[in-house]
């Protein structure tokens, strides 16, 4: 009898739990997309502002509205409209990191809460904007809804928050206002609530447009920074990009390479650098002074992962007539680590062509001996952050010694970058590093000046 009693109770609990769950679902989630509804959004936003206050890090509220929803819904019917919303909700979720919230406010309005952005407002704005751009891209792809195909871009407004400076209502209002401005500005647009951030966004977009033109207008330059051996004899150079901007003068790659990477322009720019370097190698073949010099060319991840990267390099080598053994490609640890198997396969193919590899900025990433010994590298380049404090910071000194010993054990060359003082050079030399690059030997200069330096 007791047993029967138990069964009855447990069933009862299950059912109650189920209906509690249903009530919770109804109260906090949108039944169509299953995203959090306005109530849960406010709750999460409350939490996010609390977290932001505690960590002193920014968060962002992204308000978005589908540009063509109304027209599609009116002409194609609600069933198609519903499917569009479900698909849009799905795509939005793909853009989120853990801890972010996507909610549906109703209609075709969605709100995203980003947590844990930078403490600095400028960088936080860039981070939020990157997510917004990703959303813009994802939502801008064509929708296939049964037999109906359509495009429905989004208008996106962003406002940042830090702690509890603003009420939740105001935060939502700001993002909504920004979204409305995006819509007025011509749809498929991103707008910041803060005018200063909006100005920064516009400056960036302008720079992006100009960078697109830079190649056509022949505004890109290659500078050559000498690499030397222990007797200061030149071994070759690393080529470094400069952008000769008509108003700003020479723009540093630190400023435009990240932009070029985001926009994919790096693929064309990188190819240009490779072609220019190879043409130079070829031209140097006629002079005994330069015949043996190598050139190191930086290759960014996006470029390296191009499906046809290997054949691009092969073509450039053939067309220029450069000797492959004089070409050295610099890859960073993060590039290599992105997909180790694919990296190894590509490197092997390139090695077959005769090209060499140097691991750039070594020590700043997450290298492990595991993969390091599997990569067909020729050289490791000690990052300049370790070289800088080599004489004063025992940790850096120890790291550098370890890197050199490890390179030795793996049978790899090692070069130090950012060598500025005789003390640094001496320390490196004493511990077995015999190739150097840095201001002590020469700054990056145009090729004419580089050649003059050789003759001296
Ligand atoms: P990186 O590959 O680590 O290049 C070395 C950077 O250190 C260069 O900055 C160089 O000018 C600087 N440097 C050299 N010697 C010294 C020194 O003694 N002291 C100090 N403080 N700095 C030194 P740069 O030319 O501004 O280049 C910055 C970064 O831009 C490069 O870092 C590289 O990541 C990227 N970059 C440059 N050219 C290209 C390119 O053609 N393709 C790609 N993908 N990236 C490039
Ligand atoms: Ca480099
Ligand atoms: Ca480097």
Helices and strands in order:
Elements: H1 2-28, H2 38-55, E1 59-66, H3 69-76, H4 78-94, E2 101-106, E3 109-114, H5 121-140, E4 143-145, E5 148-150, E6 154-161, H6 168-184, E7 190-192, H7 195-216, E8 220-228, E9 234-245, E10 249-251, H8 253-263, H9 266-284, E11 294-298, H10 301-304, H11 309-320, E12 327-332, H12 333-338, H13 340-353, E13 356-362, H14 369-372, E14 379-382, H15 384-388, H16 394-409, E15 413-416, H17 422-430, E16 435-437, H18 447-455
Parallel strand pairs: 6-7, 9-11, 11-12, 12-13, 13-14, 14-15, 15-16
Antiparallel strand pairs: 1-3, 1-6, 2-3, 4-5, 8-9, 8-16, 9-10
Helix pairs in contact: 3-4, 9-11, 11-13
The structure holds ligand C2E and calcium ion (2 copies).
One calcium ion is lined by residues 360-361, 381, 417.
């Amino acid at each position: 009898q007791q047993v029967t009693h138990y069964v009855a109770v447990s069933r009862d609990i299950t059912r109650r739990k189920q209906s509690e769950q249903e009530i919770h679902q109804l109260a906090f989630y949108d039944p169509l997309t299953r995203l959090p509804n306005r109530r849960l959004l406010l709750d999460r936003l409350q939490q996010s502002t609390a977290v932001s206050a505690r960590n002193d890090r920014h968060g962002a509220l992204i308000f978005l509205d589908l540009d063509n929803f109304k027209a599609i819904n009116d002409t194609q019917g609600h069933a198609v409209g519903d499917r569009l919303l479900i698909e849009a909700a799905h795509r939005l979720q793909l853009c989120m990191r853990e801890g972010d919230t996507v909610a549906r406010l109703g209609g075709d309005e969605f709100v995203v809460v980003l947590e844990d952005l930078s403490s600095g407002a400028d960088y936080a704005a860039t981070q939020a904007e990157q997510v917004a751009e990703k959303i813009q891209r994802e939502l801008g792809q064509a929708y296939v809804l049964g037999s109906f195909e359509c495009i429905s871009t989004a208008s996106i407004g962003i406002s940042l928050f830090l702690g509890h400076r603003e009420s939740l209502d105001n935060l939502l209002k700001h993002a909504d206002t920004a979204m409305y401005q995006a819509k007025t500005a011509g749809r498929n647009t991103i707008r910041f609530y803060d005018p200063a951030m909006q100005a920064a966004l516009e400056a960036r977009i302008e720079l992006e447009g100009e960078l697109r033109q830079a190649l056509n207008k022949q505004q890109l330059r290659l500078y050559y920074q000498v690499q030397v051996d222990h007797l200061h004899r030149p071994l070759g150079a690393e080529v470094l990009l400069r952008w000769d901007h008509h108003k700003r003068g020479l723009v540093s790659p630190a400023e435009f390479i990240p932009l070029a990477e985001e926009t994919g322009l790096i693929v064309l720019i990188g190819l240009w650098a490779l072609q220019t370097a190879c043409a130079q190698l070829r031209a140097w073949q006629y002079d005994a002074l330069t015949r043996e010099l190598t050139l190191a060319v930086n290759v960014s991840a996006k470029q390296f992962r191009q499906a046809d990267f290997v054949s691009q390099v092969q073509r450039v080598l053939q067309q220029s007539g450069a000797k492959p053994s004089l070409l050295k490609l610099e890859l960073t640890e993060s590039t290599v680590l992105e997909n180790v198997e694919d990296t190894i396969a590509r490197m092997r193919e390139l090695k077959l062509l005769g090209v060499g590899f140097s691991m750039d900025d070594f020590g700043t990433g997450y290298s492990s001996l595991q993969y390091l010994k599997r990569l067909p590298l020729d050289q490791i380049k000690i990052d300049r952050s370790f070289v800088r404090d080599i004489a004063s910071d025992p940790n850096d000194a120890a790291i550098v010694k370890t890197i050199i010993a490890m390179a030795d054990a793996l049978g790899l060359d090692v070069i130090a970058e950012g060598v500025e003082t005789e003390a640094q050079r001496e320390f490196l030399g004493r511990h077995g590093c015999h190739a150097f690059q840095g201001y002590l030997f020469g700054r990056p200069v145009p090729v004419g000046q580089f050649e003059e330096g050789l003759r001296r």
